[in-house]
Fold this sequence. Notes:
Blueprint: E1 2-10, H1 15-25, E2 29-39, E3 42-50, H2 58-64, E4 71-77, H3 86-96, H4 101-113, E5 117-124, E6 127-133, E7 142-143, E8 154-156, H5 165-169, E9 173-181, E10 184-190, H6 198-214
Antiparallel strand pairs: 1-3, 1-4, 2-3, 5-6, 5-10, 6-7, 8-9, 9-10
Helix pairs in contact: 3-4, 3-6, 4-6
Amino acid sequence: MSFLIRVQLPDSPGTLGAVATALGAIGADILSVDVVERAGGVAIDDLVVELPSGRLPDVLITAAESIPGVEVDAVRPYAGVLDTHRELELVEDVAAEPADGLAIFAAGVPKIIRAGWALIVAATAEGANKLAASTAAPDIQTIDLPWLPLARATVLDGEESWVPATWRELGTELAATPLGKPDRVLLVGRPGGPMFRAAEVARLAHLAGIVAVVLPD
């Protein structure tokens, strides 16, 4: 079974190699690595690893944190590998079929930023109305989003009163970005975390800005 493990580690030569060695010692096979953020001497990396049948994911935490200075932010099941070229593919897919662009974009975003789901909503007098959704997205048609219109991409507080109770119960981390205009937004969720980092939010905003150019109004 494959897992996505997010680690914080000293941004120094050899540290990631030491983590890889520790994971290999417990039988974990590293499928891919993605650098999420680097700042202040600390790196945030996402690793997709495969564990042998019967091994519990807890062993990943123990192995990674056996390296001095390494902390595990989150471990969760993950299908597929990290592919930094998916942004280009998604933009091309939207451009090829702009009439279905919202649905295509909503379906593709979670795979790029490793979110659990994505919703595209637009502000109306009755609240935010769903325009498109990915698989596994909450089954809603309208939702009250008091922060609309949205001027720029941001991390949202998953404990605020507007957040549905089921999202709070799952510890859902949330981020949103305008999609071409402040009253149309992309909302993404990660049930159980990890939190969205600043670099991920910037990546999300950049992707939304490019896609918005080819989307219909």
